[in-house]
Amino acid sequence: MKDIVMYIQAGCPYCRQARLWMEELYKANPDYSLPPLTVIDEELKPDIAARADYYYVPTYFVGGVKIHEGAATKSRIERVFKAALED
Q: Strand order of the sheet with strand 37-41?
């Protein structure tokens, strides 16, 4: 199982939608809530965000590898969870 790091901005509508889809996916498959998830608001922690290679939010890294960047779909977020659960 790999860690998930999600970069967001508090006012980003795409980030809010991604979080809602994440909640739906957790309910549909409780295993998706198993990988450790760190959410970093780039406005609150710019020093941490500056070290990551991305431009758009939301951005997901799984095990240190960027899996998704920018406006997401529910299926793309599900791929993030599946990647985190892979050995």
A: 37-41, 4-8, 59-62, 65-69
Question: What pLDDT digit, counting tens, does each position of 65-82 carry?
Answer: 999 999 999 999 999 999
Where are the alpha helices (H) located in the chain, listed in sequence order? 13-28, 46-49, 74-85
- Give the C-alpha distances (Å, rounded to integers) separating 32 from 7, 49, 84: 18, 24, 8
Whether the Cβ atoms of residue 16 and residue 72 lie closer than 8 Å to each other = no
Cα 83–chain centre separation: 11
Helix (H, G, I), strand (E, B) or coil at 39: strand
DSSP state letter for 51: T
